[in-house]
């Protein structure tokens, strides 16, 4: 599923059974959910949930990573707990076992 606009506060977009690509910003208070992978080609400032169908292989990609919450297959981290994540940078988030890993892209 492809979304070609910003996702505003209060909006929820769910790509059921698919990957989600957002060509814009995910604003604070917005929520994007994908049963597969989640790609945000803009700033990720809201809530990002990938692997909605317990897909532990799902990943989150963002060009400007600064989420309120990020989750993969039910494992999650909130903004205050993202001390090891490169905030404001291009990032790939994935699970290694039950641990969330934040890798800078590029």
TrEMBL record:
InterPro entries reported for this sequence: CAP/MinC_C, MinC, MinC_C_sf, Septum_form_inhib_MinC_C
Q: Does the keyword 4Fe-4S apply?
A: no
Name the UniProt key words of this record, in alphabetical order: Cell cycle, Cell division, Septation
Domain spans labelled Septum formation inhibitor MinC C-terminal: 2-101
Gene Ontology biological process terms in this record? cell morphogenesis; division septum assembly; regulation of cell septum assembly
Similarity comment: Belongs to the MinC family.
Function recorded in the entry: Cell division inhibitor that blocks the formation of polar Z ring septums. Rapidly oscillates between the poles of the cell to destabilize FtsZ filaments that have formed before they mature into polar Z rings. Prevents FtsZ polymerization.
Protein name from the UniProt record: Septum formation inhibitor MinC domain protein
* Species assigned in the record: Pseudoroseomonas cervicalis ATCC 49957
């Amino acid at each position: 599923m492809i979304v070609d606009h910003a996702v505003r506060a209060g909006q929820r977009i769910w790509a059921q059974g698919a990957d989600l690509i957002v060509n814009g910003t995910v604003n604070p208070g917005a929520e994007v959910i994908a049963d597969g992978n989640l790609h945000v080609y803009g700033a990720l400032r809201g809530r990002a949930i990938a692997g909605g169908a317990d897909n532990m292989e799902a990943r989150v990609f963002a060009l400007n990573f600064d989420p309120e919450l990020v989750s993969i297959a039910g494992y999650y981290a909130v903004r205050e707990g993202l001390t090891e994540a490169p905030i404001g940078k291009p990032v790939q988030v994935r699970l290694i076992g039950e641990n969330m890993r934040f890798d800078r892209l590029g």
